[in-house]
Batch of 2 targets.
Target 1
Amino acid sequence: MSETLEIGIIAEGPTDILVIKEIVENLISDQYEFTCTSIQPKCSAVFEQLNTELGTGWSGVCRCLLEMKKQSNGKFDQHIGIKRLNLLIIHLDVDVTRQSYKDGHLRNIDNNLPCPSIQCPLPLRQRNQCPSDCDIPRQRANAIRQVVLNWLDNCTPQNLVFCTPSQAMDAWVFAAFFPDDIRIRQNKLECVERPERLLKSKPKQKRIEKTVTDYRKKIVGSYCNLWSNVRQNCSEAERFSQEFLKVLNTVET
Ligand SMILES: [Zn+2]
């Protein structure tokens, strides 16, 4: 292929962007040349009309999408910046299903957050022994995808790929670096609430701090080779890989 693929990413935070770029690197391998542009949180030249004060986190993603929808007269898929992309990734952690618009300081939005509670059927004390076939993560991921589709009035481009880690991107980081951890072998990692605590529980020399500096040092350049560990232990990671590759196959450069 002579041309370079343009991939746009709308994500919750700068560390998420670094992880997603590594995943893309793994999935595309040397099939294509590509560039990843972070539309949110950071704005690139093409998207310069965007308000850069959108903040980060899920509410930053929401504000970015609503702003772009407004710029394109309600048709997000017709946005000039979106149309020039070969592939668009929208990332939201599935724990956003528990948030409310008030938490995100957002108003005038259909009241579809928090999502109707999708609860683990296990008694509270056994929640950390969720079996590997538990489908609560999938149900929650589907719920948050539907919320995004509502934000955009279902006007999404064909080349959109959702990235919905359960319950948060920290689980995907943990699965990559610590595939032999007993907590992964005993239960479903995607059901662990606040997976950042798993990362924090590691000894200091192995720990990955959630900062751009630490991610640049420990994630960039090595994470892409560990992606198969994540695909094995996180069903949403496998789903993202398959959906990404499916769209990639339809891309024309
Ligand atoms: Zn579960």
Target 2
Amino acid sequence: MSLVNGSVYRNGKFYLEDIYMSDQKITKIVPSGEILPCKEVVDCTNKLVLPGFIDPHVHINLDLGEFKSSDDYEGASKAAAFGGITTFIDFLDPINYVNEFDAMLKKKKREAKASYVDYAFHTAVGNFNDDVDELIKISRESGIPSVKLFTTYSESNRKISYAKFQEFLKNSGKTNTLILVHAENDEMIINANVEDTIESYESSRPAASEIEEIEKIAGMVAELKGRLYIVHVTCGSSVELLNNKYKELLGKNIFIESCPQYFHLTKNLYDNENGSLFLLAPPLRSSKEQEKLKENISVIHTIGTDHCPFTKEEKMRYKEASKIPKGLGSLEFSFSLMHHLFGNKIIDKFTLNPAKIHKLFPKKGIIQVGSDADFVIFDPVKVLYIDSSHSQSDNNPYENMITTGMVESTILRGEFIVKDRKFVAKGKGHFIKRE
Ligand SMILES: [Zn+2]
């Protein structure tokens, strides 16, 4: 197959080029002009040809007991395909002991067979009190050079101790492993002492609890180095603090991820009658923090979605914020929403940056000969009216929003999975081993 006459995104610029692919890989890139003989020629005139997007942060089939997130691999990967995402990274369930790892990996691999896009996993730990070196060793041997930990959720025994946190950090520098952290200050949350309502939800996990925790753990990185990736940063003040105080560590020892919901939704939604539809952790923030987040977009390395939708009925089942399942679905609209705000400077945060940080590069995240033939054909002027989604959840937080720019087609390893807004996937995604 070939993609001809498109504006091809390479090295941060656009070139009028034709791309040829075979056996799932990119085989040739030449200036547009004469079209070489090829089985299928796809005309991309006036379209942007981008590398397939990578979402480094999704939760699929997340089981919370009373609730299970709405999307299984079939639904999530379909939504992803419509959003131009050709690879996503899910999390194994958190474990406290090394010997639980195998079962968690097997379970996820079984579930993920239904995926239409390529996938990888992060290992996750709760109140882990076992051998850090051993866990990282077996995780890496399974193609998973990343471990996620939590500095909060002590009530469900998921909070890591700071001593163990530091062990993970030290190991990460030696083994080149990525430590992902959900950073909120547990004590501040436990002592927040606010009513258990939707209206008070943001104050129960306040902005200060994120900012304070990020400052603390950045201090540890300054001392111990290592590779720390801070997931779902919600506050512009957090990003500003990192940029002011720890600039030399950014992009080397500390990586920052944020999510589309923190750029498009604010905590004012919690005052509405249907506010519980927008509950997630960490919460949506004030418009002031949101503005600051936008101002600091250039400091943020990646955009992940933290995709974890529930149904409207589940989100509305209780009046108490603590009882409502937290999480929103963003896979399908993440890129269009962010491109609408920031234009082409957002592309690397969906492609090259996550590929490099999460070790999918150069297989993924770049258009070059030898890389996987994963592409998004993006129409930058077409208007997308968000009415329904392809997720299995009926709760779409972006309903009725409009973006300029639309993912028209998505190609995974040389095959269309979405073509002209129609789902056409014939094959399945692969598990991507990372080193
Ligand atoms: Zn998450």
